[in-house]
Amino acid sequence: MALPPATTYGPDLLGGDFRSASLPLRPDARGAQDLEATLVRLGDPTHRRAVLYVHGFSDYFFQAEHARRIAEGGALDFYALDLRRYGRSLRPGHLPGDVRDLAEYDEELLAALAVIRAEGHEQVVLLGHSTGGLVTSLFVQRNAGAVDALVLNSPWFDVNDTALRRLTSTPLAAAVSSRAPERVVASLGSDYGRSIHASTGGAWDFDLTLKPVEGFPVRAGWLLAIRRAHHEVARGLRLDLPVLLCTSSRSGGVAGRRPSPAELRSTDTVLDVRHMWRVVPHLARDVTLRTVPGGLHDLALSAPRPRAEYEDTVLRWIASRLDDGPGTT
After folding, report:
1. Residue 186 in contact with residue 223, Cβ under 8 Å?
2. How much is the CA Rg of the chain, to the nearest whole Å?
3. Does the residue 191 lie in any domain?
4. 69-106 residues labelled b (16+ CB within 10 A) or e (exposed)
5. Which residues form the signal peptide (predicted)?
């Protein structure tokens, strides 16, 4: 089947059989004229099922080993999307990750899904990590029927801070954003990033200009969009598709406390997993919660045993929730 117009794959920064295509986007409300997203594909499409991976904040798609495991283990084609102002889609002059409403991402998600469907895929699973889990959850609510299932890898459903700071973060972000939405109001710690990057003792190599260990600055307008999305999730989504929610079995460094070295190796040190668990009753009609002992914030970057447990869980769940017989194109 022919691709939608202007979708041409070329070599990807991951090399090998990864290819990527630019998805041009409309100018946003702030007048940016050079917006685009980037769709990454592993190999040529050969199956009727596909997974579309969506990264988190201060992130981009680089988890090549994870992609191969999911694709080979589930007879699936694997795609990933670098959202506007992130990773492969970041352009000179862009504020990394800057968005004022998470619904802005609907444009690139729908464009990516159109390409994936055009390449012969009858069933598509969205897989969102961290902020990508928040983005994809709300996308599915607004776009019923766009995908067939949703997998969430440590979704960001609340701020990992004290109760008082969680309570005051939204009005403070709103007050600053009304005057200066681009103002930096917070920063991320570098402990997690340093713990996973190969240059500082971690197991993974990624581009530190696209995913800095200290993260991107947190700006008022972006934080307000995130907090509004958090409140929407807290009110209840009740999505009408099967959802798999995977988290570490434990968090370290919760409520503003700095994680210990042992916690950095075996827990979610970015978010509080309890915030994810409490959403389960009103997230969807069909929700499966799985916790992974020893898992990190990005379960796909965990040590070999918890990473394999997470990936096996995803593959078994997809096989159980989608129609029998993935077939080939």
Report:
1. yes
2. 19
3. yes
4. bbbeebbbbbbbbbbbbbbbbbeeeebbbbbbebebbb
5. none
Domain containing residue 238: 10-321
Number of domains in the chain: 1
CATH of the domain at 148: 3.40.50.1820
Residue 26 has a CB neighbour count (10 Å cut-off) of 9
Residue type, 300: A
Query: Is 327 a member of any domain?
Result: no
Return d(Cα 57, Cα 62) in angstroms, integer. Answer: 14
Q: How many residues does the chain have?
A: 329
Residues 47/121, Cβ–Cβ less than 8 Å: yes
The model's pTM: 0.95
Report pLDDT for 154: 98
Residue with tokens 């075996």: 266
Closest CA to 106 of 210, 23, 49: 23
Residue type, 322: L
Which amino acid is residue 247, in one-letter code? T
CA distance 191 to 199: 13
144, burial (CB in 10 Å: exposed 0-12, middle 13-18, buried 19+): exposed
**Closest C-alpha to 85, from 194, 216, 189:** 216
* Residue pair 233/113 in contact by the 8 Å Cβ criterion: no
The position carrying tokens 């009609």 is 285
49-54: strand order across its sheet: 10-11, 18-24, 36-42, 77-82, 49-54, 123-129, 149-153, 239-248, 284-292
- Please identify which residue in the block is written with the tokens 């929407």: 232
Q: What are 307's two structure tokens? A: 């990473």
Q: What is the mean pLDDT of residues 316-321?
A: 96
C-beta separation of 134 from 300 below 8 A: no
Residue 4 lies inside a defined structural domain of this protein: no
Q: Is residue 42 part of a domain?
A: yes
83-108: pLDDT as tens digits: 999 999 999 999 999 999 999 999 99
Task: Write the CA distances from 288 to 11, 126, 133, integer angstroms.
Answer: 37, 15, 15
